[in-house]
């Protein structure tokens, strides 16, 4: 404003100075004009300031549109962008077959805890870019836009989930083929602050229109296929109608079971195995129960089969094995000796790290492997007999005792029982409990006992509930029994005290 005022002086709006002007009054017109000019300048300045402030407060139209269609972490198109694209695509090609490929970065929570949110977000953006880079030559994938002449073909659904929309034509298998390529090629270790960060991609696939014509339903079924693939470690990533049987209640129960392991809601009961002639305790089988905070005490039938079916059984088995080995160590400290028997499932036998886990337990608690007995169901040998046999051989070499549980209820193991590295067979309680009622059960049980003895195997009779059954078993040549006749199951924590009292009453 000072500069503008000086310019007015230079133009002659104010004339002269000093004594010559002292006695003269200034004309009124130039002063009025000056004030008017100054007022106009001030108003113009205020208008310019208000306009600039208004412009500064307005969101930039381009960025506002960008973030409504893109994920704010990775910068890749979001779920809304995919839905908008599909609305146009499916109107123009309603009969075409497509696949929704869902990709999930597994165990990303661990990366988050290790590196913090900022670094984890950077890694997530890099993973998204890696996925997109692998799709450059796949022209059958829905393209959202181009960046630096490169197609963008990945949708970031949010969190650690990404989606690809693939035109499969008449070959749905193309989706699984592409998904497996991504699983193998994308998860390369990332070096962050000197740490190599590893990750894996889980995959679930649903088909349009075979599985649904609604996007949200397709997405739900792709998630279901992904969960099914993770739980079962199965070969297929594709949704099928049988997966719908996994109700919300079942899924919630399995999530609660994982939590129950960490929160000590699980408890082990135990039932002794006796030498029937002198009542000496030879072993004790542990039986799991779940003290559910809302459902009360759940028997194994309420959750074990579902846990095995949905792939939650292995962490549960590891917990049981540790409790069993810890109990053996406690017995030894009290100068009490008894084997502890643990049931393991077919899924456990397919875990290569089972041997290492057992070796670590034996070393930690200073327990000999011979004091642990593992009971394997006969049906566990059916699914993958070669891998199961290999694991049984490794367990045998480790030194643990092996028993074939529920023997007589299946047929597969009869053909190669001689090859199995087991020391005992357990005759199923369905035969034993009816032993005193029908001749058929007597004949079957007798045949099983004779066959086992001829192979040099011990026999454990399960479900002994009375003196008459015990007497018949002894006459058949079976000397080892388990059942209510000797003891009902009770909590494992009370086993040392029970065993001491039992040995005092039955010194042998």
From TrEMBL:
<feature type="domain" description="GGDEF">
    <location>
        <begin position="96"/>
        <end position="241"/>
    </location>
</feature>
<dbReference type="InterPro" id="IPR050706">
    <property type="entry name" value="Cyclic-di-GMP_PDE-like"/>
</dbReference>
<keyword id="KW-0472">Membrane</keyword>
<feature type="domain" description="EAL">
    <location>
        <begin position="250"/>
        <end position="503"/>
    </location>
</feature>
<keyword id="KW-0812">Transmembrane</keyword>
<dbReference type="InterPro" id="IPR001633">
    <property type="entry name" value="EAL_dom"/>
</dbReference>
<dbReference type="InterPro" id="IPR000160">
    <property type="entry name" value="GGDEF_dom"/>
</dbReference>
<keyword id="KW-0732">Signal</keyword>
<keyword id="KW-1133">Transmembrane helix</keyword>
<protein>
    <submittedName>
        <fullName>Bifunctional diguanylate cyclase/phosphodiesterase</fullName>
    </submittedName>
</protein>
<dbReference type="Pfam" id="PF00990">
    <property type="entry name" value="GGDEF"/>
</dbReference>
<dbReference type="Pfam" id="PF00563">
    <property type="entry name" value="EAL"/>
</dbReference>
<feature type="signal peptide">
    <location>
        <begin position="1"/>
        <end position="22"/>
    </location>
</feature>
<feature type="transmembrane region" description="Helical">
    <location>
        <begin position="32"/>
        <end position="53"/>
    </location>
</feature>
